[in-house]
Write a structure and sequence with these properties.
The N and C termini lie far apart (67 Å). Helix 3 packs antiparallel against helix 6 (106-133) and helix 6 (106-133) packs antiparallel against helix 7. The protein has eleven helices and no strands. The protein folds into two domains: 3-156, no CATH class; 192-260, no CATH class. The protein is 71% helix and 0% strand. With 268 residues, the protein is mostly helical. This is Transmembrane protein. The chain crosses the membrane at residues 70-89, 109-128, 191-209. InterPro entries: Tmem135 (IPR026749). Keywords: Membrane, Transmembrane, Transmembrane helix.
C-alpha cells in the first residue's frame, strides 16, 4: 500500500480526534454504551486491511455520522437560542413552548442532516471502494468526497442549494489550486486570490443586472443596497430584461423572472 496514503489517512484520523476531543461531550463513551445496549461489538462486520480507523467500518461510519449530526444540530440550536433571547424574548415569555418548537424545527434538522449525510456517504463509499479495489489512493478519496458533497446537498432547501453548491465548488477549486502549487505544476503570483475574488464579484454583479432571478434573495438585496441605482437605471434594466425574454421565448427557452426580486415601482 502507498505510504503516502497511510500518512494522509493517519493525519485525517488524528484531525478528527482533535476536533471531537475539544467538544464538551464525551462522544466515544456514549457511543460505546449505545453499542453495548444494541448488542453490537466495536469490531462487528470487520474492516479492510487498507482502513486505518480503530473500529470496524460499520461502527466508524455510524459513529462519525451521528457525531456530525449532533455537532451540526448543536451549532444551529445554539444560534437559535441566542437569537430568541436577544430578539424574541417577549414571544418566549408569552409562549414557553416557542423555544422547543424552534429547536425541533425542520430547518434545524435539515441543517444537521447536511454534515451527517455527507459523512455517512463519504466514509461509507470510501470503505466500500477500498473493499472493491483492494487499495487506497487519492482517486478513492476524491470520488467519495465528490459524491458525498453532491448528494448531501439534496437535504438543503432548494432556494439555498445553489449557494451551498457554489461554496463547495469554490472550496474544491481552492484545494485543487493549492495542490497544484504544492506539486509546483503552476507558478504562484502575489495577486492570485485578489484576481479570483474580482472575477467572482464581477460575475455575481453581472448576474444581478442581467439575470436577477438566478441570484438568491439575500444576495440580490445586498447588491441592490450597494448599487445606488436610480429610476433611469431601473428603466434600462427593464428594457434589457424585456428584450432578452422575447429572444428566449422565440428560441423556446423559459424566460427569466426579474419580477421575482425587483420592485419596478420602487420609490427612489
Amino acid at each position: 500500500m502507498d505510504q503516502n496514503c497511510d500518512t494522509k489517512q493517519d493525519f485525517y484520523n488524528k484531525k478528527q480526534k482533535q476536533i471531537f476531543s475539544k467538544y464538551p461531550i464525551d462522544f466515544d463513551k456514549h457511543f460505546k454504551n449505545l453499542f453495548l445496549r444494541l448488542g453490537l461489538d466495536e469490531n462487528c462486520f470487520g474492516k479492510t486491511e487498507h482502513c486505518k480507523h480503530p473500529n470496524s467500518c460499520f461502527v466508524d461510519i455510524l459513529k462519525y455520522s451521528l457525531k456530525s449530526f449532533l455537532m451540526g444540530y448543536s451549532v444551529t440550536a445554539a444560534i437559535d437560542i441566542i437569537v430568541i433571547l436577544v430578539k424574541q424574548f417577549k414571544k418566549l415569555k408569552s409562549n414557553p413552548f416557542f423555544l422547543l418548537i424552534t429547536l425541533i424545527s425542520k430547518k434545524n434538522i435539515r441543517f444537521a442532516l447536511f454534515p451527517a449525510l455527507y459523512t455517512l456517504i463519504m466514509r461509507g463509499l470510501t470503505c466500500l471502494l477500498r473493499r472493491i479495489f483492494k487499495q487506497d489512493n487519492n482517486k478513492i478519496s476524491f470520488i467519495s468526497g465528490f459524491i458525498g458533497g453532491l448528494l448531501s446537498l439534496w437535504v438543503r432547501e432548494k432556494q439555498n442549494r445553489s449557494i451551498w453548491a457554489l461554496f463547495l465548488i469554490t472550496r474544491a477549486l481552492d484545494s485543487l489550486y493549492r495542490y497544484q502549487l504544492i506539486r509546483k505544476r503552476i507558478p504562484k503570483f502575489d495577486l492570485d486570490y485578489t484576481f479570483v475574488y474580482c472575477l467572482m464579484i464581477g460575475f455575481t454583479v453581472s448576474i444581478y443586472f442581467t439575470e436577477p432571478s438566478c441570484n438568491s434573495r439575500g444576495l440580490h438585496k445586498a447588491w441592490e443596497n450597494f448599487s445606488c441605482e436610480d429610476i433611469s437605471d431601473y428603466g434600462i434594466r427593464f428594457i434589457y430584461n424585456s428584450k432578452m425574454n422575447k429572444e428566449l421565448a422565440i428560441k423556446g427557452i423559459p424566460p427569466d423572472e426579474p419580477n421575482k426580486y425587483i420592485n419596478w415601482n420602487r420609490k427612489f
